[in-house]
Amino acid sequence: MKLTRRQTMASLAGLGVAPMLGLRPKKALASGAPVKIGYAISLTGPNAGGAGTTILPNYHLWVHEMREKGGILVNGERHPIEVIEYDDRSNSEEAVRAVERLINQDGVDILLAPWGTAMNLAVGPLFDRNGFIQATSTAITDRAPDLIQRWPGFFPLSGTAASWATPVVELMNEAREAGHIDDDVAMISVADAFGIDLAGAARRAFGEYGFNLVYDRTYPVGTQDFSSILAEIRNVKAFASFSYPPDTVAITDNAQLHDFNPNVMYVGIGGAFPMFTDRFGESVDTVLTHGGLNMADERTRDYLARHEEVTGRRADSAGSIVMYAALQAMEQAIERTGTLDNSVIAEEMKTGTFDTALGEISLASQMMPDIFKVGQIRDGYVVGLGPQDVPGRGEFIMPKQPWPAR
Amino acid sequence: MISRSPTPYVGILAVAGTLALLPLYASSYQLAFAIGLLNFAVLATAWGLFSGPTRYVSLASVVFFGIGSYTVAIVGEVMPWPAVLLVAALIGGAVALVVGLATLRLAGIYFVIFTFGLSEMVRQLVTWYEVNVTLSIGRYIFLDITQTQIFWQLLALLAIVMLGAVALQRSRLGFALRVIGGDETMARHFGLNPTFAKLALFVASSMIMALAGAIMAPRWTYIDPAIAFNITLSFQVVIMALLGGMHRIYGPMLGAILMTFLFEALSNHFPQAFSLMLGLVFIVIVYLLPNGIVGRLEEGLARTRRKPATASAKVGERT
Asked: Most CB within 10 Å of its CB: which of A174, A230, A303, B213?
């Protein structure tokens, strides 16, 4: 029975090594001891583009700035910062494993969130069970209110899908009142989480505002040719696409190629990314997209300048500043409470107000209040326009400028 | 030829019984690691169960794994857990039956292409359904199933699969499968029914994969078609089974164990260069271990056994 013995030994050797990897117990923070900040994020795979644009540069910027000040201030003393970074390879199971490792093996004091709705929900139970704060600007889900109840340390800063779609419809309404468009609206959406949720919310809002949805179609992830869709809606004056970055680029490119020039045009995720304006330059000025900044605010401009200086790349105009402001709030909460106990920090984050790149903020709702969710592209950034009650709203330029001749 | 000794059964049960105590002293990271390892061990063994004897390379592992996960997402909150597992296995088996009836007459290379296409088709079908019928792509799984429970379930599944595999190898069906794998035409002349044998094995292997998917699903909270039907999983399973060696029952499991340790070591020490290092390792495996680790070990063993014999012959010549 050699086979079984070998099989036995193989299994024993395999699983027997696992416990030997050892477990390090968590100690109280000694004077001069480093504070460990860890995160698992998509460095490779389909999520890497989004993670590398919106989240990762802000983690780097935040750590860089604390290091410049001499470390993170805990209980009146600045401690050096040790950063532990893992790649979840855009895979939920890897993300779960990497976060387990950060918590149990590396013994991190502060855990930063991964990128995207799916990854954040996959690691949510782990963050919660181990009492860590999970703040992210890249999880958009209509279950956000439920999740906050379930996980008290969860800060889904960007809120629900509906809160992103309704302001788009409000802007269309404004354009209709100004006489630039009529009741007819065309809408397309990508057949994936973001597209479906937002298109669903937009459909309801278009109905409430008395718009006539003359075209409403979903397309599969990965679609690159929109010629036939655009040919069908040539004469529509208002157009919205709830798209992902690759299709956002393709739709804009196709629209320019076929000279499809609606008076109001909204494009989805990607429109607020630097890569979009890098590619299309001034030709996409006055196109509407997600996110938006208060460009009149000095703190916003200061943030954009520091981001570019430290990370070597421009910030996006949507989730970047929201993520950074939340990190600032967390840092201030740590300074005020003088502890690394995440439940105490979370309590302070929910009750206090903080001075951040977004101004004075309160995170009582566990979501970021007063952020722009739709804006208009101008000079490489997105000028915030909606929701209408957000302070520092920019000027809505109508109609969209015609595409330049190719 | 057909052994009846109970030793392997006792061995499997003893090892599984010992490992079942692991959650008592392992940290939750170690447990998470063990869960990943067991998951791949189950999948690779199930894959080897079908592909080893029949030599069909299936890239459809993720189809059945995903079906299991989706079953949990859909009925997880309305049924008791054992019923959920049963439903997952039955759906996986039913899909495998239909697919198997349609494709197992295809010759090797066409089968590979078909299974690859199948996983994409299932993913698109589920996406289409969610987009047009439920109007929401992601599904949430909020079940109170702990890591320890997942670990025990996977361990039990692996033990059952190993017991079944040993029993199968010793059965008439197992013998028939080896003949079919060797030469299908000859097997037909012996009066064997290759299509039935292959189909039975494909269905069994698929049910196991669906069960693994169902057991793992509560770990993720949120699934959508891109997560549940991620084709990378199918390739990982194939690579693990090939690394271990497919001509022995324990080969794929050994491959899964080694590969999981390798994945973990690479992602801990080279998080930025993971894919690059993995590619290099794969090239090395293909060049140096064409028959898998088990194949290489057996070669080595055979050589050491032969050596004393030749040595004594030489001594004999000299005297």
From this structure: B213
